[in-house]
Amino acid sequence: MKQLVLDILTPPAAELGNFVVGQNSEAVAAVQSSLSGSGEPMLYLWGEPGCGRSHLLQAASRVAQARGLRTAYVDCGQLFAPDETLLDYDCVALDNVEHLDAEAQVAVFALYNQFRDLRRPLLASGPCLPAQLPLRADLTTRFGWGLVFRLQPLSDDEKTAALQIHAAERGFNLSDDACRYLLQHARRDLPSLLAIVAELDHTSLEKQKPVTLPLLRQVLQNLTQE
Predict the structure, then answer these.
(1) pTM of this prediction?
(2) Strand blocks (E) in 82-212
(3) Contact, 41 vs 122, CB < 8 A?
(4) Structure confidence by residue, pLDDT tens digits, 89-103
(5) Distance of alpha carbon 65 from the chain centroid
(6) How far apart are CA 196 and CA 126, in angstroms?
(7) How far is CA 126 from CA 132, 158, 177, 199, in A?
(8) Which of 16, 61, 145, 210 shows the greatest Cβ crowding within 10 Å of its Cβ?
């Protein structure tokens, strides 16, 4: 696949404003309350890939940072692992905690205890319930001490609404037929779908053509070319 395709499929910046809530209003409200200091500071979000847990943690981190909190977002599946330096932060978001190694688990255990005592926001996410994580028992127990939410994936109708809102913000109309075609022929997670809409907008402007179903087919064909 061409490098261009990888660039195109980079998800848009994660914000609370572009997180499509769907059936997850309670979880989003809990995140907002945690960041404001009015709710439970310890949250754990779980769900299948594409459900939006990474988006929500990244968006929450941006909100906390904008409010002047020293904030860290850590993807535990990447090379950087949590360590004792996180104890100095005001808000920490730990994504994909199932990847924590033994040393990082020790650091997160200490982090959880300190943040709970000081009521600082600590948000975490994984693919399953805390008790099912492949981590030390005392750590999974702590992840379960705060609020735990399963993020529900969007329905096709909710994805269609999100795509059309995103297109309208870019100044063009995305028809129901185009949305159905996207859901049938493209990766179905919302970040990938929104990235394709962005490329459709770019192609439309570049070629000075209106957004139509044939143009969408051409964009998808270009993305899948070797």
Answers:
(1) 0.81
(2) 91-95, 122-126, 147-150
(3) yes
(4) 999 999 999 999 999
(5) 17
(6) 27
(7) 10, 23, 35, 30
(8) 61
